[in-house]
Amino acid sequence: MAELKEFIVAIELGSSKMTAIAGQKKPDGSISVLAMVREESSSFIHKGVVYNIDKTAQCLSNIVKKLEMQLNTRVRQVFVGVGGQSVHSVRNTIVHNLDVETIVTREMVTELMDENRATDYPDQAVLEIVEQEYRVDSNLQTDPVGIRASRLEGNFLNILIRRSFLQNLIKSFEAADVKVAGMFVAPIELGNVLVSENVRRSGCAIVDLGADTTTVAVYSRNLLRHLVVIPLGANNITKDIATLQMEESEAEKMKLKYASAYTDLSEIDDTLRYSIDVERQVESRKFTEIVEARVEEIILNVREHIPAEYGDKLLGGIILTGGGSNLKNIDIAFRTHTIDKVSIASFVSIAINSGDPVIKRRDGMCNTVLGLLAKGYENCAGADLSKRDLFTPEDTPDEEDDGSGKANNFGGALAGEKARQEKERKEKAEQERLERERLEAQRKRELEERIRQENEKKPWNRFKKFISKVTEDMVRGEE
User: Is this model's pTM higher than 0.90 or not?
Assistant: First the structure.
Protein backbone atom coordinates (compact mmCIF):
# COMPACT_ATOMS: atom_id res chain seq x y z
CA MET A 1 0.00 0.00 0.00
CA ALA A 2 1.09 3.57 -0.68
CA GLU A 3 2.28 5.58 2.29
CA LEU A 4 -0.35 7.99 3.56
CA LYS A 5 0.12 11.67 4.20
CA GLU A 6 -1.63 13.51 7.01
CA PHE A 7 -3.99 16.38 6.27
CA ILE A 8 -7.56 17.52 6.81
CA VAL A 9 -9.92 18.67 4.06
CA ALA A 10 -12.86 21.00 4.61
CA ILE A 11 -15.48 22.26 2.14
CA GLU A 12 -17.64 25.36 2.44
CA LEU A 13 -20.64 25.70 0.14
CA GLY A 14 -21.06 29.46 -0.20
CA SER A 15 -23.57 31.39 -2.27
CA SER A 16 -20.87 32.91 -4.47
CA LYS A 17 -17.99 30.46 -4.09
CA MET A 18 -17.54 26.81 -3.19
CA THR A 19 -14.23 26.41 -1.36
CA ALA A 20 -12.19 23.31 -0.61
CA ILE A 21 -9.13 23.59 1.61
CA ALA A 22 -6.51 21.14 2.87
CA GLY A 23 -4.24 21.74 5.83
CA GLN A 24 -2.16 20.22 8.59
CA LYS A 25 -2.52 20.95 12.29
CA LYS A 26 0.76 21.61 14.08
CA PRO A 27 1.65 20.80 17.72
CA ASP A 28 1.74 24.52 18.56
CA GLY A 29 -1.92 24.93 17.53
CA SER A 30 -1.19 26.59 14.20
CA ILE A 31 -2.44 25.32 10.83
CA SER A 32 -0.43 25.06 7.63
CA VAL A 33 -2.61 25.35 4.54
CA LEU A 34 -1.40 22.94 1.85
CA ALA A 35 -3.89 23.71 -0.91
CA MET A 36 -7.09 25.61 -1.61
CA VAL A 37 -9.52 25.57 -4.56
CA ARG A 38 -12.43 27.95 -5.14
CA GLU A 39 -15.10 27.81 -7.84
CA GLU A 40 -18.17 29.89 -8.69
CA SER A 41 -21.35 28.50 -7.17
CA SER A 42 -23.99 31.20 -7.65
CA SER A 43 -25.76 29.26 -10.43
CA PHE A 44 -26.64 26.29 -8.20
CA ILE A 45 -26.35 27.48 -4.58
CA HIS A 46 -28.71 30.26 -3.52
CA LYS A 47 -28.57 31.83 -0.09
CA GLY A 48 -26.27 29.04 1.06
CA VAL A 49 -28.70 26.29 -0.01
CA VAL A 50 -28.23 23.64 -2.71
CA TYR A 51 -30.91 24.09 -5.40
CA ASN A 52 -29.36 22.16 -8.28
CA ILE A 53 -28.06 18.80 -7.12
CA ASP A 54 -26.41 17.81 -10.43
CA LYS A 55 -24.45 21.05 -10.79
CA THR A 56 -23.46 20.99 -7.12
CA ALA A 57 -22.23 17.41 -7.47
CA GLN A 58 -20.24 18.33 -10.58
CA CYS A 59 -18.61 21.27 -8.80
CA LEU A 60 -17.80 19.10 -5.77
CA SER A 61 -16.18 16.52 -8.01
CA ASN A 62 -14.15 19.20 -9.82
CA ILE A 63 -12.78 20.93 -6.73
CA VAL A 64 -11.84 17.64 -5.08
CA LYS A 65 -9.96 16.55 -8.20
CA LYS A 66 -8.18 19.91 -8.39
CA LEU A 67 -7.28 19.65 -4.73
CA GLU A 68 -5.88 16.16 -5.32
CA MET A 69 -3.75 17.49 -8.18
CA GLN A 70 -2.28 20.20 -5.93
CA LEU A 71 -1.67 17.72 -3.12
CA ASN A 72 -0.61 14.88 -5.42
CA THR A 73 -2.61 12.74 -3.01
CA ARG A 74 -6.03 11.17 -3.15
CA VAL A 75 -8.65 12.86 -0.94
CA ARG A 76 -10.35 10.02 0.92
CA GLN A 77 -12.97 12.04 2.79
CA VAL A 78 -13.91 15.62 3.66
CA PHE A 79 -15.51 17.69 6.40
CA VAL A 80 -18.45 19.87 5.40
CA GLY A 81 -19.83 23.13 6.75
CA VAL A 82 -23.58 23.72 6.73
CA GLY A 83 -25.18 27.14 6.91
CA GLY A 84 -27.42 29.30 4.80
CA GLN A 85 -31.11 30.05 4.69
CA SER A 86 -33.40 28.16 7.09
CA VAL A 87 -30.62 27.39 9.59
CA HIS A 88 -31.79 28.75 12.92
CA SER A 89 -31.88 27.99 16.62
CA VAL A 90 -34.84 26.95 18.75
CA ARG A 91 -34.83 26.79 22.53
CA ASN A 92 -36.18 23.71 24.23
CA THR A 93 -36.66 22.89 27.90
CA ILE A 94 -37.05 19.41 29.37
CA VAL A 95 -38.17 19.08 33.01
CA HIS A 96 -38.02 16.03 35.27
CA ASN A 97 -39.75 16.28 38.62
CA LEU A 98 -38.11 13.73 40.93
CA ASP A 99 -40.25 11.72 43.34
CA VAL A 100 -37.84 12.26 46.18
CA GLU A 101 -34.83 14.51 46.66
CA THR A 102 -32.06 12.75 44.77
CA ILE A 103 -28.42 13.33 43.86
CA VAL A 104 -28.29 14.09 40.12
CA THR A 105 -26.38 11.46 38.15
CA ARG A 106 -24.87 11.50 34.68
CA GLU A 107 -27.58 9.06 33.58
CA MET A 108 -30.28 11.52 34.63
CA VAL A 109 -28.66 14.27 32.55
CA THR A 110 -28.35 11.89 29.60
CA GLU A 111 -32.07 11.14 29.85
CA LEU A 112 -32.83 14.86 29.54
CA MET A 113 -30.55 15.11 26.50
CA ASP A 114 -32.12 12.06 24.86
CA GLU A 115 -35.61 13.42 25.44
CA ASN A 116 -34.59 16.73 23.89
CA ARG A 117 -33.01 14.93 20.94
CA ALA A 118 -36.26 13.07 20.34
CA THR A 119 -38.22 16.32 20.00
CA ASP A 120 -40.00 16.37 16.63
CA TYR A 121 -39.89 19.49 14.47
CA PRO A 122 -42.15 19.20 11.39
CA ASP A 123 -40.17 19.50 8.13
CA GLN A 124 -37.01 20.32 10.13
CA ALA A 125 -33.90 18.30 10.95
CA VAL A 126 -31.68 18.88 13.99
CA LEU A 127 -28.12 19.74 12.93
CA GLU A 128 -26.63 20.21 16.35
CA ILE A 129 -27.60 20.61 19.99
CA VAL A 130 -25.92 23.22 22.19
CA GLU A 131 -26.35 22.55 25.90
CA GLN A 132 -27.30 25.60 27.93
CA GLU A 133 -27.46 25.77 31.73
CA TYR A 134 -29.32 23.21 33.84
CA ARG A 135 -31.71 24.39 36.53
CA VAL A 136 -31.35 22.33 39.67
CA ASP A 137 -34.37 23.25 41.79
CA SER A 138 -34.03 27.05 41.57
CA ASN A 139 -30.28 27.29 40.82
CA LEU A 140 -28.60 27.41 37.41
CA GLN A 141 -25.64 25.06 36.91
CA THR A 142 -23.48 24.23 33.91
CA ASP A 143 -22.92 20.73 35.31
CA PRO A 144 -25.62 19.46 37.68
CA VAL A 145 -24.08 16.03 38.34
CA GLY A 146 -23.57 15.38 42.05
CA ILE A 147 -26.03 18.02 43.26
CA ARG A 148 -29.04 17.01 45.39
CA ALA A 149 -32.36 18.09 43.85
CA SER A 150 -36.07 17.36 43.63
CA ARG A 151 -36.45 19.02 40.22
CA LEU A 152 -34.08 18.92 37.24
CA GLU A 153 -34.51 21.13 34.20
CA GLY A 154 -32.39 20.92 31.04
CA ASN A 155 -32.18 23.87 28.67
CA PHE A 156 -31.05 23.25 25.11
CA LEU A 157 -30.48 25.25 21.95
CA ASN A 158 -31.37 23.07 18.97
CA ILE A 159 -29.92 24.12 15.61
CA LEU A 160 -32.39 23.27 12.85
CA ILE A 161 -32.39 23.18 9.06
CA ARG A 162 -35.21 22.56 6.63
CA ARG A 163 -35.22 18.83 5.98
CA SER A 164 -35.45 19.17 2.18
CA PHE A 165 -32.35 21.41 2.16
CA LEU A 166 -30.38 18.84 4.15
CA GLN A 167 -31.49 16.07 1.81
CA ASN A 168 -30.32 18.06 -1.23
CA LEU A 169 -26.93 18.50 0.41
CA ILE A 170 -26.63 14.79 1.18
CA LYS A 171 -27.68 13.79 -2.35
CA SER A 172 -25.10 16.17 -3.86
CA PHE A 173 -22.20 14.53 -2.03
CA GLU A 174 -23.51 11.07 -2.85
CA ALA A 175 -23.84 11.98 -6.54
CA ALA A 176 -20.28 13.36 -6.52
CA ASP A 177 -19.05 10.19 -4.79
CA VAL A 178 -17.34 12.32 -2.13
CA LYS A 179 -17.26 10.70 1.28
CA VAL A 180 -18.13 12.93 4.23
CA ALA A 181 -16.24 12.39 7.47
CA GLY A 182 -18.33 14.88 9.44
CA MET A 183 -20.69 17.79 9.11
CA PHE A 184 -20.42 21.00 11.14
CA VAL A 185 -22.67 24.01 11.64
CA ALA A 186 -20.54 26.61 9.85
CA PRO A 187 -21.50 29.68 11.97
CA ILE A 188 -20.55 27.83 15.17
CA GLU A 189 -17.10 26.90 13.87
CA LEU A 190 -16.62 30.45 12.63
CA GLY A 191 -17.31 31.76 16.12
CA ASN A 192 -14.84 29.32 17.65
CA VAL A 193 -11.91 30.63 15.59
CA LEU A 194 -12.90 34.27 15.20
CA VAL A 195 -13.04 35.46 18.80
CA SER A 196 -11.60 34.25 22.11
CA GLU A 197 -13.48 32.47 24.87
CA ASN A 198 -13.21 35.65 26.97
CA VAL A 199 -15.09 37.64 24.33
CA ARG A 200 -17.76 34.96 23.97
CA ARG A 201 -18.05 34.77 27.75
CA SER A 202 -18.51 38.54 28.11
CA GLY A 203 -21.22 38.50 25.44
CA CYS A 204 -21.00 39.32 21.75
CA ALA A 205 -22.84 39.08 18.45
CA ILE A 206 -20.91 37.77 15.46
CA VAL A 207 -22.37 39.07 12.20
CA ASP A 208 -21.17 37.28 9.07
CA LEU A 209 -21.99 39.50 6.09
CA GLY A 210 -22.13 37.12 3.13
CA ALA A 211 -23.11 37.40 -0.50
CA ASP A 212 -26.73 36.26 -0.20
CA THR A 213 -27.19 35.97 3.56
CA THR A 214 -26.26 37.61 6.84
CA THR A 215 -25.73 35.25 9.76
CA VAL A 216 -26.14 36.42 13.35
CA ALA A 217 -24.72 34.35 16.22
CA VAL A 218 -25.21 35.67 19.75
CA TYR A 219 -22.96 34.48 22.59
CA SER A 220 -23.13 34.93 26.34
CA ARG A 221 -21.18 33.16 29.11
CA ASN A 222 -19.22 31.37 26.37
CA LEU A 223 -22.37 29.68 25.07
CA LEU A 224 -24.19 30.17 21.80
CA ARG A 225 -27.57 31.65 22.75
CA HIS A 226 -29.15 32.47 19.40
CA LEU A 227 -28.50 31.74 15.72
CA VAL A 228 -30.35 33.05 12.69
CA VAL A 229 -29.65 33.46 8.99
CA ILE A 230 -31.15 36.56 7.39
CA PRO A 231 -31.79 36.18 3.62
CA LEU A 232 -30.11 39.49 2.76
CA GLY A 233 -26.52 40.08 1.76
CA ALA A 234 -24.03 42.05 -0.30
CA ASN A 235 -25.56 40.82 -3.56
CA ASN A 236 -28.76 42.68 -2.69
CA ILE A 237 -26.77 45.91 -2.73
CA THR A 238 -25.39 45.00 -6.15
CA LYS A 239 -28.87 44.28 -7.51
CA ASP A 240 -30.15 47.60 -6.17
CA ILE A 241 -27.32 49.46 -7.91
CA ALA A 242 -28.18 47.61 -11.13
CA THR A 243 -31.58 49.34 -11.11
CA LEU A 244 -29.67 52.45 -12.22
CA GLN A 245 -29.81 50.92 -15.72
CA MET A 246 -26.67 48.81 -15.77
CA GLU A 247 -25.72 45.15 -15.79
CA GLU A 248 -25.12 43.38 -12.47
CA SER A 249 -21.46 42.84 -13.39
CA GLU A 250 -21.13 46.62 -13.85
CA ALA A 251 -23.03 47.23 -10.61
CA GLU A 252 -20.63 44.95 -8.72
CA LYS A 253 -17.65 46.95 -10.01
CA MET A 254 -19.39 50.20 -9.06
CA LYS A 255 -20.06 48.84 -5.56
CA LEU A 256 -16.45 47.84 -5.02
CA LYS A 257 -15.18 51.17 -6.30
CA TYR A 258 -17.63 53.76 -4.93
CA ALA A 259 -20.02 52.25 -2.37
CA SER A 260 -19.97 53.33 1.27
CA ALA A 261 -22.22 52.01 4.02
CA TYR A 262 -22.33 55.44 5.64
CA THR A 263 -21.80 58.93 4.27
CA ASP A 264 -22.18 62.18 6.18
CA LEU A 265 -24.79 64.32 4.47
CA SER A 266 -22.43 67.27 4.49
CA GLU A 267 -19.94 65.27 2.44
CA ILE A 268 -22.31 64.52 -0.44
CA ASP A 269 -21.48 66.55 -3.57
CA ASP A 270 -24.60 66.98 -5.69
CA THR A 271 -22.46 67.83 -8.71
CA LEU A 272 -20.39 64.65 -8.49
CA ARG A 273 -21.16 61.81 -10.88
CA TYR A 274 -19.75 58.28 -10.91
CA SER A 275 -18.72 56.75 -14.23
CA ILE A 276 -20.25 53.46 -15.29
CA ASP A 277 -18.22 53.44 -18.49
CA VAL A 278 -16.85 56.05 -20.89
CA GLU A 279 -20.35 57.04 -21.98
CA ARG A 280 -22.57 56.59 -18.93
CA GLN A 281 -22.60 58.18 -15.50
CA VAL A 282 -24.80 58.13 -12.39
CA GLU A 283 -25.46 60.84 -9.80
CA SER A 284 -23.43 60.23 -6.67
CA ARG A 285 -26.32 61.20 -4.38
CA LYS A 286 -28.70 58.72 -5.97
CA PHE A 287 -26.01 56.04 -5.86
CA THR A 288 -25.30 56.74 -2.19
CA GLU A 289 -28.97 56.70 -1.21
CA ILE A 290 -29.54 53.32 -2.89
CA VAL A 291 -26.53 51.73 -1.19
CA GLU A 292 -27.27 53.12 2.26
CA ALA A 293 -30.95 52.18 2.10
CA ARG A 294 -30.14 48.52 1.60
CA VAL A 295 -27.33 48.56 4.18
CA GLU A 296 -29.70 50.08 6.73
CA GLU A 297 -32.28 47.37 6.03
CA ILE A 298 -29.69 44.67 6.67
CA ILE A 299 -28.51 46.33 9.89
CA LEU A 300 -32.03 46.80 11.22
CA ASN A 301 -32.73 43.12 10.55
CA VAL A 302 -29.59 42.21 12.49
CA ARG A 303 -30.67 44.41 15.39
CA GLU A 304 -34.14 42.89 15.34
CA HIS A 305 -32.73 39.36 15.56
CA ILE A 306 -30.56 39.99 18.60
CA PRO A 307 -32.76 38.82 21.52
CA ALA A 308 -33.72 41.67 23.84
CA GLU A 309 -32.38 39.80 26.88
CA TYR A 310 -28.87 40.01 25.41
CA GLY A 311 -29.10 43.34 23.58
CA ASP A 312 -27.67 45.35 26.48
CA LYS A 313 -25.24 42.64 27.61
CA LEU A 314 -22.94 42.50 24.60
CA LEU A 315 -19.82 43.63 26.44
CA GLY A 316 -17.73 42.12 23.63
CA GLY A 317 -19.72 44.16 21.15
CA ILE A 318 -20.87 43.37 17.63
CA ILE A 319 -18.15 41.73 15.54
CA LEU A 320 -18.43 41.98 11.76
CA THR A 321 -16.83 39.51 9.37
CA GLY A 322 -17.31 38.00 5.91
CA GLY A 323 -16.92 39.61 2.50
CA GLY A 324 -19.55 42.25 3.23
CA SER A 325 -17.46 43.59 6.12
CA ASN A 326 -15.10 45.09 3.52
CA LEU A 327 -17.72 47.66 2.53
CA LYS A 328 -16.40 51.10 3.37
CA ASN A 329 -17.67 52.54 6.70
CA ILE A 330 -19.71 49.43 7.48
CA ASP A 331 -18.66 49.65 11.14
CA ILE A 332 -19.81 53.28 11.34
CA ALA A 333 -23.18 52.32 9.84
CA PHE A 334 -23.63 49.59 12.46
CA ARG A 335 -22.72 51.99 15.28
CA THR A 336 -25.30 54.44 13.96
CA HIS A 337 -28.12 51.92 14.17
CA THR A 338 -27.07 49.50 16.93
CA ILE A 339 -24.47 49.89 19.71
CA ASP A 340 -21.24 51.83 20.03
CA LYS A 341 -18.93 48.84 20.34
CA VAL A 342 -18.59 47.50 16.80
CA SER A 343 -15.43 45.96 15.36
CA ILE A 344 -14.36 44.13 12.20
CA ALA A 345 -12.66 40.73 12.39
CA SER A 346 -10.84 40.39 9.09
CA PHE A 347 -9.07 37.17 10.03
CA VAL A 348 -9.26 34.23 12.41
CA SER A 349 -7.56 34.32 15.81
CA ILE A 350 -5.52 31.13 15.28
CA ALA A 351 -2.14 31.13 13.52
CA ILE A 352 -2.43 30.25 9.83
CA ASN A 353 0.58 29.57 7.62
CA SER A 354 -0.26 29.92 3.94
CA GLY A 355 1.15 31.27 0.73
CA ASP A 356 -2.26 31.41 -0.94
CA PRO A 357 -2.90 35.01 -2.07
CA VAL A 358 -6.63 34.81 -1.22
CA ILE A 359 -5.88 33.79 2.38
CA LYS A 360 -3.05 36.31 2.66
CA ARG A 361 -5.48 39.16 1.86
CA ARG A 362 -7.07 38.61 5.29
CA ASP A 363 -10.32 40.18 4.15
CA GLY A 364 -12.80 37.92 5.97
CA MET A 365 -13.60 35.84 2.89
CA CYS A 366 -11.87 32.67 4.15
CA ASN A 367 -12.71 32.83 7.85
CA THR A 368 -15.50 30.24 7.77
CA VAL A 369 -13.63 27.62 5.76
CA LEU A 370 -10.61 28.07 8.05
CA GLY A 371 -12.90 27.48 11.02
CA LEU A 372 -14.13 24.24 9.41
CA LEU A 373 -10.54 23.19 8.77
CA ALA A 374 -9.65 23.85 12.41
CA LYS A 375 -12.60 21.71 13.55
CA GLY A 376 -11.65 18.69 11.41
CA TYR A 377 -10.44 15.81 13.53
CA GLU A 378 -9.60 12.93 11.19
CA ASN A 379 -7.03 12.33 8.48
CA CYS A 380 -8.51 12.85 5.01
CA ALA A 381 -5.50 11.77 2.98
CA GLY A 382 -5.64 8.74 0.73
CA ALA A 383 -2.97 7.16 -1.43
CA ASP A 384 0.00 9.10 -2.80
CA LEU A 385 -0.80 9.63 -6.49
CA SER A 386 2.86 9.96 -7.43
CA LYS A 387 3.42 6.31 -6.41
CA ARG A 388 0.58 4.87 -8.46
CA ASP A 389 1.55 2.90 -11.54
CA LEU A 390 -0.16 1.21 -14.45
CA PHE A 391 -0.79 -1.89 -12.36
CA THR A 392 -2.62 0.02 -9.60
CA PRO A 393 -6.35 0.02 -10.34
CA GLU A 394 -7.90 3.48 -10.25
CA ASP A 395 -10.66 2.36 -7.92
CA THR A 396 -8.45 0.50 -5.43
CA PRO A 397 -9.58 1.52 -1.93
CA ASP A 398 -7.11 3.79 -0.20
CA GLU A 399 -5.44 2.63 2.96
CA GLU A 400 -7.53 3.12 6.08
CA ASP A 401 -10.65 3.28 3.93
CA ASP A 402 -13.51 1.43 5.54
CA GLY A 403 -14.61 0.12 2.19
CA SER A 404 -18.02 1.64 2.62
CA GLY A 405 -18.02 3.34 -0.75
CA LYS A 406 -20.38 6.27 -0.70
CA ALA A 407 -21.39 5.75 2.90
CA ASN A 408 -21.24 9.24 4.35
CA ASN A 409 -21.15 10.33 7.96
CA PHE A 410 -23.19 13.50 8.13
CA GLY A 411 -23.00 13.48 11.92
CA GLY A 412 -26.07 13.58 14.07
CA ALA A 413 -28.13 15.28 11.37
CA LEU A 414 -27.91 12.34 8.97
CA ALA A 415 -28.27 9.82 11.80
CA GLY A 416 -31.31 11.73 13.02
CA GLU A 417 -32.72 11.92 9.50
CA LYS A 418 -32.34 8.17 8.98
CA ALA A 419 -33.82 7.51 12.40
CA ARG A 420 -36.76 9.78 11.56
CA GLN A 421 -37.35 8.02 8.23
CA GLU A 422 -37.18 4.62 9.92
CA LYS A 423 -39.58 5.82 12.60
CA GLU A 424 -41.99 7.12 9.96
CA ARG A 425 -41.72 3.82 8.06
CA LYS A 426 -42.52 1.83 11.19
CA GLU A 427 -45.37 4.15 12.14
CA LYS A 428 -46.82 3.90 8.63
CA ALA A 429 -46.53 0.11 8.69
CA GLU A 430 -48.20 0.02 12.10
CA GLN A 431 -51.01 2.31 10.89
CA GLU A 432 -51.53 0.11 7.84
CA ARG A 433 -51.62 -2.98 10.05
CA LEU A 434 -54.16 -1.42 12.39
CA GLU A 435 -56.25 -0.29 9.43
CA ARG A 436 -56.23 -3.82 7.98
CA GLU A 437 -57.27 -5.22 11.36
CA ARG A 438 -60.01 -2.60 11.63
CA LEU A 439 -61.40 -3.41 8.18
CA GLU A 440 -61.18 -7.14 8.84
CA ALA A 441 -63.02 -6.70 12.15
CA GLN A 442 -65.63 -4.55 10.42
CA ARG A 443 -66.18 -7.14 7.69
CA LYS A 444 -66.46 -9.85 10.35
CA ARG A 445 -69.05 -7.85 12.28
CA GLU A 446 -71.07 -7.21 9.09
CA LEU A 447 -70.97 -10.91 8.19
CA GLU A 448 -72.07 -11.93 11.68
CA GLU A 449 -74.88 -9.39 11.52
CA ARG A 450 -76.13 -10.76 8.19
CA ILE A 451 -76.02 -14.31 9.52
CA ARG A 452 -77.84 -13.27 12.66
CA GLN A 453 -80.54 -11.50 10.66
CA GLU A 454 -80.93 -14.46 8.36
CA ASN A 455 -81.18 -16.82 11.32
CA GLU A 456 -83.84 -14.63 12.87
CA LYS A 457 -85.83 -14.77 9.65
CA LYS A 458 -85.68 -18.58 9.27
CA PRO A 459 -88.38 -19.51 11.94
CA TRP A 460 -90.73 -16.89 10.55
CA ASN A 461 -90.18 -18.14 7.02
CA ARG A 462 -90.94 -21.73 8.13
CA PHE A 463 -94.09 -20.52 9.95
CA LYS A 464 -95.21 -18.60 6.84
CA LYS A 465 -94.74 -21.72 4.73
CA PHE A 466 -96.76 -23.81 7.26
CA ILE A 467 -99.64 -21.28 7.27
CA SER A 468 -99.56 -21.17 3.50
CA LYS A 469 -99.72 -24.97 3.24
CA VAL A 470 -102.58 -25.22 5.80
CA THR A 471 -104.52 -22.55 3.93
CA GLU A 472 -104.04 -24.33 0.64
CA ASP A 473 -105.23 -27.62 2.20
CA MET A 474 -108.32 -25.91 3.63
CA VAL A 475 -109.13 -24.39 0.29
CA ARG A 476 -108.81 -27.77 -1.46
CA GLY A 477 -111.00 -29.39 1.27
CA GLU A 478 -113.78 -26.86 0.77
CA GLU A 479 -113.70 -27.52 -2.93
Answer: no
